[in-house]
Amino acid sequence: MTQHPATTAPYRTGLLSNQAPNERERLQSIQNSVDAFTIKVLQELPIEASSHCLELGAGAGSIAYWLAARCPQGRVVAVDLDTRHLDAHHATNLEVQEADITSEDYAPGSFHLIHARYLLCHLPQRDEVIARATRWLAPGGWLVVEEPYHLPADTSPSPLVQRVLAAYQRTYRDNGADMTWARSLPSLLARNALSQVSFAGNLGCMGGGTTKDRWLPLITQAAPAMLADGLITEADLTEFTTLLKDPAFIDIPQVTIAAWGRRPEEAASTH
Question: Phi and psi at residue 36, in whole multiples of 5°?
């Protein structure tokens, strides 16, 4: 139940920093909409009560906390660049580590499970981080990565959403994100010598009149940048907020792709 400071912080400020307005709400909206899918994927893997787990980009901590409960005789390292939304006292087998995963390294064979969600698509070094993470796996260990695949904005049934999503996607691209990279995950895991590679998808929902639509916090956080660049107007934001409350409006803006693979047991002799 320890906490270590980060030495570098290239992503501490900006669109996705934990000090950004409404960041806690954005993280919570992700957990509310995706946790059930994530847990279903993890439950199908042979995670033992004694497994050592690494949660990359732990965010507000829901999956790290779930893993700590799932592996009571093991340990869970929850790492994030800024850990203000994580509770280091949530479990005795939980270690909260404040670190930059683009420079952090772990001993080869340290973990039986490594999980990352909605993290790597934002990092220029995403392929390199995948390659390094495979080396952190113990023989027989699993790497699970979940990332969003954004559908083309111009295919939305709503002209307003077409404008808003086009602006949102451009803003994220300008901040170094690749919202279609998820498609390459299965191939990337296989190229890094993982076996039993598999994948699944979870359709994202926008609208439907729900009071917990995950897209309002996301668009709200990106809105200042989109407005400053003239990509949308204040009127667009007001109309978008109203549209989300309309039960007659339902859209599918993205698919979350989860891909996973296993480090072969025979790799034990190489380290």
Answer: -60, -40
> Can you spell out the DSSP letters for 40-84?
HHHHTS---TT-EEEEES-TT-HHHHHHHHH-TTSEEEEEES--T
d(CA 188, CA 69): 30
CB contact at 8 A, 59 and 27: yes
Tell me which residue of 172, 78, 193, 182 sits closest to 126, measured CA to CA.
182
- Residue range 102-119, pLDDT digits in tens: 888 899 999 999 999 999
Max Cα-Cα span within the chain: 62
Beta partners for residue 3, in sequence order:
96
Q: How many residues does the chain have?
A: 271
Say what the pTM is. 0.90
Strand-pair category, 206-207 with 3-4: unpaired
The DSSP 8-state label assigned to residue 142 in this structure reads E
**CB-based contact 117:31 (threshold 8 Å):** no
pLDDT digit string, tens, across residues 9-44: 334 555 655 566 678 888 888 898 899 999 999 999
The DSSP letter of residue 246 is -
**What is the reported pLDDT for 26?**
84
